[in-house]
Amino acid sequence: AHKAGLDKVDKEHVNKVITEASKGSAYYKNQQYRLRAIKNKIKRFKYRIKQFRANTVLWTKTYHDVQRRLMWFKNERSFKRTWVHVDMDMFYAAVEIKDNPAFGEVPLAVGERGIIQTTNYIARQSGVRSGMPTFIAKKLCDKLTIVRPNYVRYQEISDEMKTILREYDPDLESCGLDEANIDVTEFLMKNNLNHAMGRLWLAQRIRKTIFERLEITCSVGISCNKMMAKILSDFEKPDGCTYIDYKLERVLAFMKDLPIRKVPGIGKVIEQILNNLGIFYCSQVIERATEIFITFTEHTFEFLVRACLGISRNVHEDPRDLLQKSLSVSNSFKPISRFDQFKEKIKEQAEELEHRARSAGFKGRS
DNA sequence: TGCACTAAC
DNA sequence: GCAGGTTAGTGCA
Q1: Disulfide-capable partner of A116 in A111, A250, A268, A292 (CB 3.0 to 4.6 Å)?
Q2: What is the pLDDT of residues A82-108, one digit of tens each?
Q3: Which nucleotide is nearest to A34 (CA to C1')?
Q4: Which residues form the UmuC domain (predicted)?
Q5: Residue A183, exposed/middle/buried by CB under 10 A (0-12, 13-18, 19+)?
Q6: Ramachandran sector of residue A215 (left: φ over 0; alpha: ψ -120 to 50; beta: rest)
């Protein structure tokens, strides 16, 4: 329900339909199994924290160590650069509607192989959303129109969008077809726009240009680093634009009431773990940093604390790190049991993988 | 290094 | 009857 466009939905009804359709399925059983594993993990975490608290000397020492680390992170905060995150609204569905306006009047979903990838906002009102199996989506919305994705077309539109954005930052970093990050600092400086009003003006200008050239709306976040810009782009979806002024108290006030799940990189599992420790908002991660430190690895602790302070990278990735690192092929199939069937399956997959690796000019390393 | 798991689109 | 595909990364044995 954290996804945009779901605020007017009858959640109780939606949950009932999903539960009805789910129970007994292999998928559901697997989910239950994984949920139990997470619950066990949480139990162990809670026990570890209890042990730690019981040892006052150790707890105090850890507390001060953690506070020292927090100071370190706070020194990393920088308001020197400005990033814009652009996120196209319901992208695949929007392209389908652009090419066939009639789709804009009906509940529409784009999907294949039994899974919905994206939906327009009419469909979202019935609780239909990305990642949902089509048979459940149909139960929620019997008039739902489902079309197969046309990736060639989406790529075309995506390229057009990125061409527009490269006027502001030639080193644009993209994530998927519908999202991109640009560092607009130089553009702002050159045009004497590097102040609150100027930044907001630029964000709106980008949105306007994209809409005029593509007839598709987007949501934009503009802030002092990539992560903040991304969080903000989601804040007023769809067709929205959010900016937070570069003042420490403004950033902290925003993070204070921000649900942890809104932080990119915190998914279902980490959310569950933190919720069980009584942590729901970003500010609580900082308040309870000692417990976080004990619970997670050092790496995850640093990620969580930095993110919840609103601190993240504000310079471009090394281009070498942006090159593709791996390639894989996977698909789902009905249960099989005979050895020759497995052998055949693996052969098919391997041949497909080989084919793609050759086209991409990849060699196997191991 | 290989595998399980998490996360994102 | 019916629950995807692809890439990146972490953590552990």
Answers
A1: A111
A2: 999 999 999 999 999 999 999 999 999
A3: B5
A4: 83-267
A5: buried
A6: left
